[in-house]
Write a structure and sequence with these properties.
Length: 401
């Protein structure tokens, strides 16, 4: 009997046999199953899809058509404008502050765009930039969202988490909300806090038992502090604005974040593709849905098969967790002193014995949407057939630059 992975290997090879490598694919059955499992974990709260983790319009539209999903968290303002104008959604939150004056000018000059898009702020100087582009009396009202820093600061000096917003305390959040309320041409509609040290850090890194225990301890202590501080910040901000949404979380914390009474919606994206970094999570692991294939081009030794290309590493700290994972056939690994290369990648292991030039090796990317930066289209696998769908890169949009 074929194992599940062997069956997947045969299905991917069959569906893409007419295509030349490199190929990137998304298995729609796994994608849809991951979407439904994330919805269940959100326990009735809507999920805003993180576009940076998908980067394919067809798949954004697919997940937004499913119950429980509503709105997009974009990563640039030009992208948000394109998503609205192309009809993907009429509800976009731009996750990061923008300094794109051209995009701000377009937003300020279009009532439809201004009604659909919220931009992120964490300091009054970002409002000054908008006013420099278009004065309040000459523009549409700009919708704003405050980014509350979710990091944990035990003792006041130690910083655990990513470096995002300078707004950390409830007092700081309330002060910024008050300043926004006094500025004409703006409307504060949302608040976001992304607990990267909880949602974005796997608590079961393979082969690192001590680190795993340290991560779990950190997360157990950090979460209660965040829940208390976030609730206080929401109350402080609501004194100055009628918030439409309070956003939080990511794939790795959907269940935990949705249980927070202060949160009205959660964000997820990576869990739709199930990249390799999520193998380090205990609570929930998505089904791998996104893969890329490279062709074997030579056999330098009996237990080595070399594929063309392979250096599709992910962003973040320069460590092994950011490397792609040889997935199909099972039993392959990188050569320690070479790793995945720019033009060739030697693969070691018993499975290499059976590979010949022209055979394919399927990999999983470490992160989700970054896979789409390497290809112009994804092959969407439905059963044993494949249909192409352009990635953001394939659509050729300027916001990628």
């Amino acid at each position: 009997m074929l194992t599940d992975r062997s069956a997947l290997h045969q299905r991917l090879d069959k569906a893409t046999s007419h295509l030349e490598t490199p190929i990137a694919v998304v298995d729609l059955a796994a994608f849809d199953d991951n979407a439904d499992r994330l919805t269940a974990r959100a326990a009735g709260k809507p999920i805003r899809v993180a576009s940076k983790s998908v980067r394919c319009r067809a798949l954004l539209e697919r997940v937004l058509a499913r119950p429980g999903w509503h709105g997009v968290m974009a990563y640039t303002l030009p992208e948000a404008i394109w998503l609205v104008r192309s009809g993907v959604t009429d509800d976009v939150l731009v996750a990061y502050p923008t300094a794109d004056r051209t995009a701000l000018r377009r937003l300020a000059g279009d009532e439809k765009l201004a009604a659909a898009i919220s931009i992120m702020v964490d300091h009054p100087s970002q409002l000054d930039l908008v006013d420099q582009v278009a004065t309040p009396e000459d523009r549409a009202v700009i919708r704003l969202c405050i980014d509350l820093d979710a990091s944990w600061k035990p003792g006041g000096s130690l910083h655990v988490g990513v470096r995002r917003s300078p707004v950390h305390s409830a007092t700081q959040a309330g002060t910024l909300a008050r300043k926004i309320a006094t500025r004409p041409g703006f409307r504060l509609v949302g608040m976001m806090s992304y607990e990267a040290h909880i949602a974005g850090v796997g608590d079961d890194p393979p082969g690192q038992a001590l680190r795993a225990r340290a991560i779990r301890l950190m997360q157990r202590r950090a979460l209660p502090e965040l829940l208390t501080r976030r609730a206080a910040a929401v109350r402080a901000v609501r004194e100055h604005a009628d918030l439409e949404y309070v956003n939080g979380g990511g794939t790795g914390s959907v269940a935990t974040t949705s249980a927070d009474p202060a949160i009205t919606e959660v964000t997820a994206g990576s869990g739709l593709y199930g990249p390799a970094l999520f193998d380090a999570y205990r609570d929930w692991r998505p089904t791998p849905a996104a893969f890329f294939a490279l062709s074997v081009v030579r056999r330098p030794a009996p237990r080595i098969a070399t594929v063309l290309g392979g250096g599709w590493t992910a962003s973040g700290p320069a460590e092994a967790s950011r490397l792609p994972t040889p997935y199909l056939p099972e039993g392959l690994s990188f050569k320690g002193d070479e790793g995945p290369g720019e033009v060739q990648t030697p693969l070691l292991g018993a499975a290499a014995e059976q590979l010949r030039p022209g055979d394919r090796v399927w990999f999983r990317h470490a992160k989700a949407g970054e896979l789409c930066e390497h290809v112009n289209e994804l092959q969407l696998i439905d059963g044993s057939t494949a249909a192409p769908a352009p990635t953001y890169r394939g659509e050729g949009h300027a916001f990628l630059g």
